[in-house]
Design a protein that fits this description.
Length: 263
Amino acid sequence: LIYPASLNDGHGHCATPDEYDMPYELVNLTTSDGETLQCYSLKQDPHGASYSNKTVLMLSPNAGNIGHALPIVSIFYKSFGYNVFIYSYRGYGKSTGKPSEKGLKIDADRVMEYLTKEDGQYQQSSLILYGRSLGGAVAIYIAATWGSSVHALILENTFLSIRKTVPHVFPILKYVTSFVHQKWDSESLVPLISPSIPVLLLSARKDEIVPPQHMDRIYTLLKSNSKEKYEFVDSFHNDTVMQEDYWNKIHTFIQDKVNPVGF
């Protein structure tokens, strides 16, 4: 229920960036426990006059595979001119293994090692985490763990914990949440995020999966010196990305809050 795409559409056809007229490199990363992660690396020309020296690490929701996210990748890459790195969690797309909280955190650590220690262009750019739903929980983990390497955090419709989300989605299970082994306790990690990291929260107020109050609580817990929460009053869990002003909010936030490394 938590990782549905690992069972069905996540293993179907996985579109590639060149199908959207975007050059890319296929990167396969081996994790510390021996799994292989399928990654798409999209870099701007670092010698181009308009090079922004900013990189977006996209952290996907629990449905679909990274091919389904390419229209969003296209906005960051083609419209905004940022580098983009996106990968399939273990058990999704062409990545090996089975998804779990422990495993996805191992995956995140491996990706961050690559971006901050192994690839020169990414290493020298400002890193923006963009996480939607489950991807928001992964982004919170990265921000709390790799804070000195993170320059901004964008969260859309993410949760305080799985245990606090289950009763909202499946009311019949509200008395057995103690048996939910995938905790994703973001509530305890959010206060650990460095105050120096600017944060943008994008909240659907008619979210039928994650109660909007989760995003409100995350906002309260954040110690960031620069935090913003934007509410989409008529938006549901999966259509927030299509709301008017969504992309303007993101673009303005990155332009205003994220300076290129070295500037």
